[in-house]
Structures are given as structure tokens and as C-alpha cells.
Amino acid sequence: MVVDEVERAALDGVFHALADGTRRDIVVRTLAAEYSVSALSRLYPMTFAAVQKHVAVLERAALVTKRRSGREQLVTGNVDTVRRAARLLDQLEVVWLARMERFGAVLAEDPDPEGTA
Hints:
The protein is mostly helical.
């Protein structure tokens, strides 16, 4: 599993953005449908400006894209970025499971390494 520095920085931004529950919810909603920032702001107990800031973090992480339609800013989730993060998590799971298997094998080899049984 090799992740170059550019990819590492991009994924750091993705996971930072997803660390917040409101931002995760915005991603889920905007993957299902396009929302205006105004419509999103009505869904959360915070100011319009706070929702705009959350959307800006998600946009910098490439988890959503924004486009203008008249006076509205429309937000759409970016499934490719979510898939890229999921692939990394899948790779980490493979590494972790292999380590756990090796650990189990070591324990099975010598159940009493101290010879105290």
C-alpha cells in the first residue's frame, strides 16, 4: 500500500472533513440529491454562515462540488472522493487483518512462552 505525498495530503483533508458529524450528514444528503446551501442551512440548528463554512471544508476536500444557479449555490456530493477514501480504508483493513492473523499464529505456536505451566 503506497500512498504518495499528494494523495496523503488529499486523504488527510477528506478524513478531517469527515471527522465532523454535520459534514458527514451533508455528504450523505448531497450524494443522494443536490441541495442549495440555503436548503441545507434549514436542516441544521446553526446559522447559514456556519453551514456555508461546513460546505467550504467539504469542497476543499473534494467531497462536494458547488455550482451557481441564479442566486443559489447548489451542492452535490462527489462519490469518487468517497470511493477513494473507502479504498484506503479497505487497504488498511487488509493490513490489520493480516497482522491479527500473524499475532494469532504466534500465540498458537507457544501457549506458554515462560514455561510456567
